[in-house]
Request: fold
Amino acid sequence: MTPDANTWIIWGISELNGWLGHSNPTHGSPSGRDAEDCLDAHLACGIQHVVWDLGRSVLHYHSDLPHATCRGLRQPPDGATAAKRAVERLYRERCQLRAALRHAHANGMTLYGRLCMNRHYRPGTGLTGRLFENHPEWFEHRQDGWLDISRVCYGIPDVRRERIDVFMEATEIGVDGLHLDFCRQPPMVGYHPVFRQGYCEKTGSDPRTIAVNAGEEGFLVWCQYRAEAITALLRELHAELVSFRERWRRPVPIQVRVPNDGLEANLVAGLDVGTWCREGLIDELMLSELHWLEQYRTWDDRPYIELGKRHAIPVYGSSNCLPRQNIKWRDGRNWSGQLNPHGVNPLVLARRALRSHEDGASGIALYQSDTGVQWPDTREAVERLADPKRLRAYVNDPGNARRWPVTDENRDYGIDNHSAKFE
Reply:
């Protein structure tokens, strides 16, 4: 795909679960048309391109795959609130993906299917698919030898097969493109015996003895080795899409989202972005300012924008509607997974988007847009993103600077909400 020089697209990255319950006082749409109402809210803000949630370990649509675990079909855990039970019922009684596709296509919208690529939580919580619970040998290992039960090993062909099956089913259902989200949760690869044994056979070295040092050649050789597993996944997905594209004569682009902390840091996460671009394995690139690796603290969209220009790949700048979760309250208490009311600043969000436009991005990847299109203050900025002239006027308005003073808590608004806070 070759972007037009004047292209500027706002991609909403929406999770219906967020629309239904993430500090939404209605806990769902009163109309009962939850997917449609969520998309209409995007349209009202000028967002016509939406990445729709397919799931993580558990799928969020009605799947016919024999190995799939679908949301809403498991008994809610003891102690679940009435609101959570209601949300589970909505997923059980209606395929929200199919409903969203019907509404999107009827209204001229583009809808991609998004899958979190290595976010499996903890077995027994109801958030891990049964297939993975039944194959504990697939779970990743940490450098210290402990099992990492939140991730699985992409060096195992069956693991790659499961993700590809989900994408191909979503393609048959009718999504306009596929979104591979590698920002939940890096690293995508670890120290599974499959990787360790192969690396030992190739180099004679045990990777567990290699120090994790930024820029260290030996460490990067190990990172390059295990990153091949994710590249293999993309090659296999790309190959399977060939016949579908030929049969239906439609493109089905492959879109990926990665942290914007540099190509070397991406490689540490298992993401060989440069190879993906050179081999034509991806069609679009999205970015997220995710602070996850203490050794790499430079977050910049521009190297990716230049990479995209070299390979005719549109690149969408980093943005996020949720404030960072892993910080301290003003009284010193630690908190996580909750929304920090002091961390939101629409003007900071708008400035971030305008900078992406001036840097030459093809648009914005607006994560958790389901929240941004419903919160009144954030919506004020979001509804201006699609029009760079209105966006610039909003940013330059002195009244907005007085209304939205920048503080230590909100100056980073728009970075990935899962970002760590380094000392």
